[in-house]
Amino acid sequence: QVQLQESGPGLVKPSQTLSLTCTVSGGSITMNNYYWAWIRQPPGKGLEWMGSIDDIGLTFYSPPFKSRTSISRDTSKNQFTLHLNSVTPGDTAVYYCARGGIFMDGYDYWGQGTQVTVSS
């Protein structure tokens, strides 16, 4: 059973960088044919895919986030991390990490989500 757990600050000030880490257990983030995503849901809105990192470390970003987002990984800790620069109150959302695969639509495992509020 694969489990994902997000961790990071619940409150970030405007213009700062938000960093969230997803710790994965029950499966390696280097497992072939899988990729690991960051998805968020602002209040009252739908899910937004922000970006992904695949099994060999290649990254892919959604155009609205590409200029201020990076995703990295630490294979020794089986973790991947989201960095979102220059946050604004519009980045207030529940942030999820999830696992996807090239043989599936969508994601089969999700973290529980973590609330991030951007406020001074």
Description:
The protein is mainly beta. It is 0% helix and 52% strand. The chain contains no helices and eleven strands. It has strands spanning 3-7, 11-12, 18-25, 34-41, 48-54, 59-61, 69-74, 79-84, 93-101, 107-110, 114-118. A hairpin with a 5-residue loop joins strand 9 (93-101) and strand 10.
Features:
four-stranded antiparallel β-sheet, 11 strands, single chain, seven-stranded mixed β-sheet, mainly beta
Beta-strand portion reads over 45%
Number of contiguous helices: 0
Low-confidence stretches: none
- Helix coverage percent of residues? under 10%
Decide which structural class fits the backbone.
Answer: mainly beta
The count of β-strands is 11
Could you give the topology of this structure?
Elements: E1 3-7, E2 11-12, E3 18-25, E4 34-41, E5 48-54, E6 59-61, E7 69-74, E8 79-84, E9 93-101, E10 107-110, E11 114-118
Parallel strand pairs: 2-11
Antiparallel strand pairs: 1-3, 3-8, 4-5, 4-9, 5-6, 7-8, 9-10, 9-11
Concise account of the structure shown:
This protein has about 120 residues and is mainly beta. The chain has strands at about 5, 10, 20-25, 35-40, 50-55, 60, 70-75, 80-85, 95-100, 105-110, 115-120.
